[in-house]
Amino acid sequence: MKILISIFFTFFTFLVFSQTKKTYTYAIKGVDTLKLDVYSPDEIQPIDKKLPVLIWMHGGGFSGGTRDSKYNSLLCQFAAQNGFIGISISYRLLRKGTETGFGCNCPKETKLETIKQAVIDYLDAAAFIVDNSEELNINPNYLIAAGSSAGAESVSNAVFMRDYFVSDTQKYKSVKFSGLFSCAGAIINSEYINKDNAIPSVFYHGTNDKLVPFGIAPHHYCNSEKPGYLIMEGSHQMVKKLETFEIPYYFNIVKGGGHEVAGIPFSDLKDIFNFFNQTIIQNKIIQTKIIKTKK
Predict the structure, then answer these.
(1) pTM of the prediction?
(2) Could you tell me the CATH superfamily of domain 2-293?
(3) For residue 277, with 0-12 CB atoms within 10 Å meaning exposed, 13-18 middle and 19 or more buried, which class applies?
């Protein structure tokens, strides 16, 4: 695995060039100054062309991780070299320094509030991006919500369960997601996926993920007697709903895979961005399942 990571780093180091990175503050909430890093091609031709954007939210159990880590930066740099603007955001890590973290001893109500606030942070970042789309050379019609682990849970709920978590939805009426990229994510209830919010989606998930369920199961597989017992619905359930509405998806299943599948799939990025080009820009209907077995 270390050898593969080294190869990927070398490969993407040579790919990434002629880019501009700018950092913006999108919100200040209490002691948290929330920022986002925008990776853009140095030259956009024609000069007035507006690009689609990937808005990335890192993982870390709502207690760790940074927007500008090497892998998160590499992903956004790759996006900027392939016809997109890449943006990585910070958000409030509400479980940082707590005794229970986000596990089975963290009360269900606290988990839901943590997810809610992460959803709001993500929507605030997206609203900032839309409001400044001219300066950022972004086409607000092509917003791809993307994240890993806790970030994937947050963005998936922001896309499909906005009405559940947000009371003032009018505040975010300008934010319309056109694509989803989820690495080991889950939502509270897949019944919230409907014809209006179902969008082309990419999912990566291991069938033996013991933190974020692949299908329908308790988050972290907590015993029903634990305070943190919370049923969530993972990638498998979300794909089933998208199939119902004949919405494009790219579903990468790792049989026997665990939560390591939440890592950014660098070797597949060309295929992932091609999927979004074909489905959200060219409006093609593509439904793909790739099943691998953990080695």
Answers:
(1) 0.93
(2) Alpha/Beta hydrolase fold, catalytic domain (3.40.50.1820)
(3) middle
